[in-house]
Amino acid sequence: MIFLDKFLQGLKPQFDDDIVDRLNYYYTPMLLVIFALTLSAKQYVGQPIQCWIPAQFTGAWEQYSENYCFVQNTYFLPLTHYIPRDVQQREEREIGYYQWVPFILGLQGILFFLPSLIWRLLNWQSGIAVKGIVQMCQDVGNMQYEKRSSSVTVVASHLLESLKIQRNLVKSGPFASLLHQGKYLNLLYLFVKSSYCLQVLIQFVILNNFLGTNYTFWGFEILRDLANGREWQESGHFPRVTMCDFEVRVLGNKHRHTVQCVLMINMFNEKVYLFLWWWFLVVALVTIGNLIYWLAMSFSGSQQDSFIVQYLRAQNVLDNSPGEKQATTKFVHQWLRKDGVFLIRLIASNAGDLITTDLVLKLWQSFLEEEKERNHATAPPPLEDVDGFKYGEKTPLA
């Protein structure tokens, strides 16, 4: 029970990402689970198939034939076609997906969740508590100035210490170079984004192969068939009426029976998969667009500068002096670096601009203090003459 509770907690939105990620790993799997449970109830509680049987069949024989045909597959023939004598030709027309629909939907939900699992397993190696930082910034108590000031101080302190350790820590391992350069989190997040794009494209391949269709753009083609009046009786997609062959032994002899069955479950399968195909298309387009956005924001230095400077200008701390651009550039690219800017962008997308503005101001003040101390420590000491008097001072009177 403890394991199940932890697993269900892991399926909840974590808010250490953006809304498009949650669309992939939370909302879409939840939708798939709902459809899987609904179709499972129809299959295993209701009556997914009914067959037209010979008059001599008893009730037990009818139940056997329906169970056999549902488990062992049926085959589709247009009502105007004769049943082929060759058994192999009948087997080539079999449709065998309807029994496995709930399981495949569950598998598809797991595939949508996998990139999120990679993010959760690997982002902690940066030494930055991404989830904790974002949750603290999201706290509703931050509406009060005192509470917000306290949260900003804690978050800024953690960020400063983590970024400083990244710069100074000598660590071995496959990610050591990325950590030292301050871009591990950013590149990991882009990799996860790319994984979301790849797996949603794989979903279309799974759907086409599972349903056994020759249509490349299945959703478009199905809608076109419906618009042109080409129903399942002609197209064969999700047929409601199918044929089934089975053999029984009577007095040691085999008797082969062919019955006609109604697949009521296919009426639901068609609606579910038609909706899912268009849902996957929307998710794919949104995810690819979101990946392009994050790539542009991550690799464009000017975008990073403008993103941070807008929060500093909101607090009126920039004075348009000649050294201002140089200072802000150093603050963004040498002090915060890619991981720092990425975290601030993540906070802004989840917690809003109010606390993000306070956080950037706090980090800017810490940067100025550190620069002031560094300049003071590296300033040359005043020169002294051979008698110990400083140059520029008056010589004491005799």
What descriptors fit this protein?
de novo design (two linked rop proteins); mainly alpha; two-stranded antiparallel ribbon; 66% helix
CATH topology of the domain at 1-78 and 90-127 and 169-299: de novo design (two linked rop proteins)
Judging by the overall fold, what is the CATH architecture of the domain at 1-78 and 90-127 and 169-299?
Up-down Bundle
How large is the radius of gyration?
33 Å
How are the strands of the biggest sheet laid out side by side?
1-5-4
**Count of strand segments:** 5
What value does the average pLDDT take? 82
Largest sheet composition: 3 strands, antiparallel
Q: In CATH's first tier, which class of the domain at 1-78 and 90-127 and 169-299 applies? A: Mainly Alpha
Helical percent range?
A: 55-70%
The tally of helices reads: 15
Beta content comes to 5-15%
**Euclidean distance between termini CA atoms:** 93 Å
Structural class: mainly alpha
Overview of this structure, please?
With 398 residues, this protein is mainly alpha-helical. It has a domain at 1-78 and 90-127 and 169-299: de novo design (two linked rop proteins) (Up-down Bundle). It is built from 15 helices and five strands. It has helices at residues 2-10, 19-44, 59-72, 87-92, 101-122, 130-138, 145-168, 176-181, 184-211, 218-227, 232-235, 265-299, 301-314, 324-351, 353-378, and strands at 49-52, 74-75, 94-95, 241-250, 253-263. A three-stranded antiparallel β-sheet has the order 1-5-4. A hairpin with a 2-residue loop joins strand 4 and strand 5. The longest helix has 35 residues, at 265-299. It starts with a helix and ends in a 20-residue tail after the last helix. Residues 1-8 and 389-398 have low confidence and may be disordered.
